[in-house]
Design brief:
317 residues; alpha/beta; 6-stranded parallel sheet; globular
């Protein structure tokens, strides 16, 4: 491990994930925040919005060329889907060695980019400067399915429920607490982006049915898995314990985990392993905070990895 300090910029810093990133960066001994870009908050002092941050930075409204001109060591793009390409092109042209971590879905299907779910893909990291951060639901699904991949007899069926922070800060039905009160809102019930993402990553078709709930943060993901040979509960649990041994951010629990227990925490919990009669169908439950392990925490793991810093630096665990 080296002991250099690196400069970092965040583009799209107004959103929920940007706020969590700023907290992680403020606690990081080796990262110096060089700029934060937000159109809506342009000119406002960062410290007014984030007490964890004690520097003098103000939000700036930066286009792709202005971001590239900053010449920082690393950039995190926390933008809505479809907006990353001009920033990537400008940064690549100005300073190709810049580490870029993209939180959108724009490069999750691009083989030139490292897909950064460290607990599952760390072995594929070969010094790539461009890192695609997985989706929040996609992270939970893969953690729940991966240890049983070689046993699957058919497509996993995944029922997901997310807090409304997952719908971002731009007003919509999916983040309107009044509409969501006492409600569960199904949406994108086939062909969801994360369904395609997980199917591509795991190499098996996955069926995913997402819903939004009236709580603010946290995902619960229930995966129904048909197996090609009977297993005991002990065999299933042992597979998960072995798969995530030595992974401080993935906790295997006995009971089905509760989303309220994971909100505000940086890891994921997987548990509730329940077999149907015949022992060829198992249900697994995974929970994580969509803003943390589903976004900001994972981005920090990936950034640390790319900069040669201990992966969990600044991440409470």
């Amino acid at each position: 491990m080296n002991d250099s300090t690196y400069t970092l910029g965040i583009v799209g810093a107004r959103g929920h994930t940007g706020a969590e990133l700023i907290k992680l960066v403020a606690a990081h001994p080796r990262l110096q925040l060089a700029f934060v870009s937000s159109r809506e908050l342009d000119g406002k002092p960062l410290a007014d919005h984030h007490p964890e941050y004690t520097g003098e930075l103000h939000y700036e409204n930066l286009d792709a060329d202005a971001v590239a001109a900053k010449g920082v060591d690393a950039v995190i793009l926390a933008l809505p889907n479809g907006l990353a390409a001009p920033f990537v092109a400008a940064i690549q042209a100005a300073k190709p060695e810049t580490v870029i971590v993209d939180l959108s879905a724009d490069y999750r299907f691009d083989g030139q980019w490292y897909y950064g779910l460290p607990e599952l893909t760390r072995g594929r990291y070969q010094g790539q400067k461009h890192i695609s951060n997985p989706g929040c639901y996609a992270t939970a699904m893969q953690l729940a399915i991966h240890p049983l991949l070689d046993l699957l007899a058919g497509p996993p069926q995944c029922f997901g429920v997310s807090g409304y922070s997952g719908a971002g800060t731009s007003p919509s039905d999916k983040n309107n607490p009044e509409l969501l009160a006492d409600n569960l809102m199904p949406y994108s019930l086939t062909n969801h982006m994360h369904e395609r993402e997980v199917s591509a990553q795991l190499g098996v078709p996955v069926e995913f049915m997402p819903h939004v709930a009236p709580h603010f943060r946290g995902i619960t993901l229930t995966a129904n898995l048909w197996l090609n040979r009977a297993q005991t509960r002990e065999q299933i649990v042992e597979r998960f314990q072995q798969a995530y041994a030595g992974e401080p951010l993935v906790e295997i629990v006995d009971e089905a985990p509760w989303v309220s227990h994971i909100a505000g925490r940086h890891g994921a919990q997987v548990g509730g392993f329940t077999l149907a009669p015949g022992n060829k169908r198992v249900v697994v439950v995974a929970t994580l905070d969509n803003l943390l392990k589903g976004a900001a925490t994972q981005a920090m793991q990936n950034l640390n990895l790319a900069l040669g810093i201990d992966e969990l630096t600044s991440i409470p665990h």
